[in-house]
Amino acid sequence: MTEALLELHGHSRRVGLVEWHPTTNNILFSAGYDYKVLIWNLDIGEPVKMIDCHTDVILCMSFNTDGSLLTTTCKDKKLRVIEPRSGRVLQEANCKNHRVNRVVFLGNMKRLLTTGVSRWNTRQIALWDQEDLSMPMIEEEIDGLSGLLFPFYDADTHMLYLAGKGDGNIRYYEISTEKPYLSYLMEFRSPAPQKGLGVMPKHGLDVSACEVFRFYKLVTLKGLIEPISMIVPRRSDSYQEDIYPMTPGTEPALTPDEWLGGINRDPVLMSLKEGYKKSSKVVFKAPIREKKSVVVNGIDLLENVPPRTENELLRMFFRQQDEIRRLKEELAQKDIRLRQLQLELKNLHNNPKNC
Asked: Where are the WD repeats (predicted)?
């Protein structure tokens, strides 16, 4: 990916967040440092709506299952639930005791989970009723570290994963609609701290291995990405329907015009038993560019890009050393073969039967 398919211009300051609408094709939300959220229709490449209710930088955005509600956290210490098409704030909470950083909708439970910092500067999570943000349902302190806590929720298994920036561990909890609402299970531990995490969509998981969640961990020190699989241990090799219910698939449920017209629709579900290898009909094709070359002294500079860092220089050095070693071995083998042929030729000349 070297060229943008589409460039969007609308914010007056830099963009900090982008989120796809969960059920509608080609609807994108962007939040900038101008305190505004723009809703883009990528079919026309233009913003079609603007949400202008924030008074400071927006820290996080999350949608409910059908995309009819948007929740945000903001640097003004407020948690908001917004109707995205009109921009109307349905619920708002002043989070002075629990300074919120990240928020996630918990599927169809009508619950929100936030991560933040308590008044004693300890990391904390809080559970909220989306229809009443006057006070959190529960608050739970995690630890005294300073890194941001990133929440990841799996609606299929009702599992919540908490990963802290700079931490090496990932905690997981089970979420329920009844008290105590939040049940700690265990945690994954690693000595390597994480700078950030990405998630594989459900249809990309290894169902045969009972993989229910997969992270892609950006390791701070090593400059690499490490996959981390969450696997349910099962002895049977058959398809496990209890951990793989029908899940949102790759096909959109709405067109941009339908959603902008006021229609809400749940995601189009798919079964991982049959459809997890099925490719999506929605395909974006990058523009084809002709291969260019810049040749100087017989060397293509685009094919032979000089190293920019010490690590790249070392990798190039070791690759060249391996190539030199391989060429020397190949030369030695050809030299031995040449001597064998010279000896055979000499024997032919010295053999009287050939005269």
From this structure: 8-50, 51-92
Contact 137, 130 (CB under 8 A): no
> CA dihedral defined by 85, 197, 169, 110, rounded to 10 degrees?
20
The four Cα atoms 145, 151, 152, 154 give a dihedral, to 10 degrees, of 120
Give the pLDDT mean for 257-263: 93
Per the structure block, which two tokens stand in for 192? 């390597």
Instruction: Quote the CA–CA distance of 157 and 61 in Å, as a whole number.
Output: 22
Given a cut of 70, is residue 213 above it in pLDDT? yes
DSSP 203: G
User: CA 91 to CA 81: how far, in whole Å?
Assistant: 5
Return the residue matching tokens 């999506």: 280
The C-alpha angle 128, 132, 137, rounded to 5 degrees, equals 35
Max CA separation in the chain (angstroms): 111
Q: How confident is the model at residue 261 (pLDDT cuts 50, 70, 90)?
A: very high
- Taking the CB of residue 158, how many other CB atoms lie within 10 A of it? 16
Mean predicted confidence (pLDDT) in 207-233: 88
Residue 240, number of CB atoms within 10 A of its CB: 16
DSSP 97-164: SSEEEEEEE-TTSSEEEEEEE-TTS-EEEEEEETTB-SS-SEEEEEES--SPEEEEEETTTTEEEEEE
User: In sequence order, which residues have a C-beta less than 8 Å from that of residue 218 and are 6 or more positions away?
Assistant: 194, 195, 196, 197, 198, 225
Q: Above 70 in pLDDT, residue 303? A: no
Q: How buried is 272 (Cβ within 10 angstroms: 0-12 exposed, 13-18 middle, 19+ buried)? A: buried
Closest Cα partner for 205 from 216, 192, 190, 219?
216
Q: Parallel, antiparallel, or unpaired: how do β-strands 78-83 and 149-154 relate? A: unpaired
CA 348 to CA 355: how far, in whole Å?
Answer: 9
* Burial (0-12, 13-18, 19+ Cβ within 10 Å), 271: middle
Between vectors from CA 6 to CA 306 and to CA 13, what angle results, nearest 5°? 85
